[in-house]
Amino acid sequence: MPTQEQHLLLSVVAGLLLLFFHPATSKSTIEPCSNSDTCPAILGYTLYTDLKVSEVASLFQIDPISLLTLNSIDISYPDVENHILPAGLPLDVPVPCSCVDGIRKSVSTRYKTRPSDTLTLIADTVYAGLVSADQLREANSISDPSVLDVGVSLVVPLPCTCFNGTDNGLPAVYLSYVVTADDSLAGIARRYTTTVTDLMNVNAMGSGAIQAGDILAVPLPACASRFPKFASDYGLMVPNGSYAITASHCVQCSCGPGNLNLYCMPASLAVSCSSMQCKNSGLMLGNVTWKQSAAGCSVTSCTYGGFVNGSIVTTLSTSLQPRCPGPQLFPPLVAPPSFVAKHSTFAPAPAPESQGGIAATPLSSTVPSTGSLPGLVTPANGPAGSASGVSSARSITDTPNALPILLISLWLVNFVMHYSSL
């Protein structure tokens, strides 16, 4: 019979093992809000299986062309919407970020349940950890998660932040990034050309410790538009190193490289677009002319002013600049990917100081028709984010001190068993 001391030792071992195997809590940055406005946001998403471009777009209820342009994927390829993207491919997904129940989240996504679906499968696999099973259950008032009818349309609340569209006083779009087991905060900072300090400030982190399943808000430098509030594309922001399509696929805008000045031009994608010529001039949208003089360089440009009541607004402006501009540079385009290269990423290249780029007009002949298929701490001088816990199991290997704890536990068990036999 085990003595009181033996019971005590067994309790210690049990406590260590419970600590060892106890589910950890993943954290997600939450932005409190009190108004009804929306902002553009981005989700860092990894394909769970081979999917057509149109299927990925349908999964998030977004425009396939917007998905491609955000990732700087060339839309001039034939039947590009039916191109099959490979499993494991990281993509940036544009979503609107709203204020719901006092916090920022994207609630425009719906998912229709299929046979053998579970909330955990939908959350962890289909949406790659961007939402949790508990969040799906709460958002859809599901009392019994074990009973999930086929064909039910579920609201999928997805993480997003706005932070007034700025980071350190400069225009920025925020990406929601799901941390993987191989990630470090320094590695994420390098990937998105930012700093560990900036990530910690944005996410209100007391330390640089992260774990798989955490969702971080990552600021991406962007080109901001200045369209009037009555324009349908008011608030358009384009992450540096990428493109955006607007005005019913008639206008294509780009950001960078080398600066954060939004540049828009005819997309040459649709056959029925309103006039894109600036009044009282022969200049078309995107055209720039200049003339050198002793006083400097007189630059005249025809710029995009938003999409209002189905019409493309253009503005003619003239300014005197110290030097004449060079050719317009464009972010590099990539072919629609068919395989995942090692360390592949299609995240925007947010480095405004970079001087590389393409000086020619981006390839774009015709627009394919869009298809469809089935802690709360405010950091000093930083956005007012907060850390929210989301239930998530953590494996043994996720804990840095796991091996020592396991060895000690096994030694104690062996000691107790040996002592009990005496």
From TrEMBL:
Superkingdom classification of source: Eukaryota
Q: What is this protein called?
A: Uncharacterized protein
Q: Which organism is it from?
A: Melastoma candidum
